[in-house]
Design brief:
The chain is mainly α. The chain is 67% helix and 1% strand. A two-stranded antiparallel ribbon has the order 1-2. It is globular.
Length: 494
């Protein structure tokens, strides 16, 4: 949709950087976003060095992280940031007043309900013309955190340890947080603008100075020749991620604007371009749409690492890993040979949230319910629902093909290589086919696009599901967990 004259300088937040926006010809909301993240990066280094747990109390660290986060929100979104604060305070009231058996349900309904109302306003008030970096982005992250904490609080206080999975037991929160802890977790300056969502216990361990230490204790350092625990620095990881961020920014400024997704439904393009060439161009424009996500998520990861947050342990080579909060694995995305592998490495923290809040807790149809929740969380643009409903179909078809066919290609190296090449091509095209409506947003261009490619992925997926036997996955842990939940409910009712 074309921007009206003067649109590059529109923003709901501060206009302090308007001259820079005019000079570069980049929308002011995007300039504010990048400026806040770069300032957050500097603040994060200062926070780690001068407000480390050895120099400042947990209360001071919580307060600093919260106040800076609130300032960034107001700077970027102006009075629209009040939506963030309203949702946070409403759910703080729920967390303190709701009964533990229902705390996760009430928190989920209120947070998702408020987020959905804000998403609706984007269509009926802004008519698809909302700014690229509007307040709904931070609101989506806060919704993830609110529901994550509510579920983990329910696990920690309202359920027995034997009812929980190993991960739920590890992340369970045993007591309600104080107001300062709650505000810091939801509004801290490292994640207020671009996330990612993290677990409450990990965040509190970071603030209190236990975050890195706990991960280091998982390794026997004496066997490695160390007399004491090492002190891993995030500087190398931050520099590496900043390099990725820079490359992504360059690609965004060059490729993204030169290969618009709208061109694949241009009448002249459709009339003159053969089907296979259209698929090839679809792959190109989808690739061109990725750098902005690579940029935003990798920069957000670097900000958290610079503050000392995001240490995940030591790999088998003895290398310190700072990927606890990483939102994507670019290599695995670009080389994915299955739809599942692609999804698992894209928007990783959101996938983890969907798993913990929905997939692991849904008594029926977990895959379908998870895709539907993902669509609702993203917004109410019709294109989102085309994407996620198509994703359900393709996921089931890909699973059926893998379960029925893959073992035939593992007998020799050439066969395995051929299988990997074919599945890579199919996976990449399937992803492009699935996400195109996500970018187009509206119904009309989505239907026009699918007609232009003859709904081929939908038809092939349906044929696969009709012709190949579906081998249901055995979720023994899920069944045991769900049974335990049912037993718990029954016992409470007695």
């Amino acid at each position: 949709m074309a921007e009206p004259p003067g649109a590059p300088h529109r923003t709901t937040g501060s206009t302090l950087l308007h001259p820079l926006s005019a000079l570069l010809g980049i929308p002011l909301d995007q300039i504010n976003f990048v400026a806040c993240q770069l300032f957050a990066l500097l603040a994060a280094f200062w926070f780690r060095i001068y407000l480390s747990p050895s120099h400042a109390s947990s209360a001071v660290r919580h307060a600093f992280a919260t106040l800076f986060g609130i300032y960034f929100a107001v700077f970027c979104f102006g009075w629209y940031s009040i939506h963030l604060f309203v949702l946070v305070m409403m759910n703080y009231g729920i967390m303190n007043m709701a009964s533990i058996p229902n705390i996760h349900r009430y928190s989920f309904v209120v947070a998702m309900g408020y987020l959905t109302l804000c998403h609706i306003s984007r269509i009926y008030i802004f008519h698809y013309g909302i700014l690229t970096t509007d307040f709904s982005g931070p609101l989506m992250i806060i919704t993830q955190k609110i529901t994550t904490l509510a579920c983990q609080l329910h696990d920690g206080i309202g359920r027995q340890a034997e009812e929980l999975t190993a991960e739920q037991n590890r992340l369970a929160v045993k007591s309600r947080p104080s107001l300062l802890e709650y505000l810091s977790y939801l509004l801290n300056f490292m994640s207020i603008i671009a996330g990612p969502c993290s677990n409450y216990k990990d965040y509190i361990a970071f603030i209190e100075g236990r975050h890195v230490h706990m991960k280091l204790l998982e390794v026997n350092w004496k066997q490695k020749g160390y007399d004491r625990l090492p002190d891993p620095s995030p500087t190398g990881a931050v520099m590496y991620k900043l390099c990725i961020t820079l490359v992504s920014l360059i690609l965004f400024l060059t490729l993204t604007k030169n290969f618009p997704m709208a061109y694949i439904i241009d009448n002249e393009f459709l009339d003159k371009t053969p089907f296979l060439s259209r698929l090839g161009y679809l792959y190109v424009v989808t690739q061109a749409a990725k750098p902005k996500y690579y940029f935003a998520w990798t920069l957000a990861d670097a900000v958290n690492n610079a503050a000392g947050y995001g240490f995940s342990g030591v790999d088998e080579k003895g290398t310190f890993r700072w990927d606890l909060l990483s939102n994507l694995n670019i290599w695995n995305i670009e080389t994915a040979t299955s739809f599942k592998m692609y999804i698992e490495n894209w928007n990783i923290q959101t996938a983890a949230w969907l798993k913990r809040v929905c997939y692991d807790r849904a008594p029926w149809y977990p895959t379908a319910l998870t895709f539907i929740l993902s669509a609702l969380w993203h917004g109410i643009y019709p294109g989102y629902y085309f994407t996620f409903l198509t994703g359900i179909l393709i996921t089931l078809a890909a699973r059926a093909i893998r379960n029925n066919c893959r073992h035939y290609f593992l007998s020799s190296v050439p066969l395995k290589i051929a299988y990997d090449v074919v599945t890579w091509v199919v996976t990449q095209l399937a992803v492009c086919y699935t996400v195109a409506p996500f970018v187009m947003l509206a119904v009309e261009p989505t239907i026009k696009f699918y007609k232009s490619v003859y709904f081929h992925m939908h038809i092939l997926s349906i044929l696969v599901l009709l012709l190949l036997p579906v081998r249901p996955q055995t979720h023994s842990v899920r069944r045991a967990q769900n049974q335990a939940m049912l037993n718990s409910i029954k016992n409470k009712d007695k």
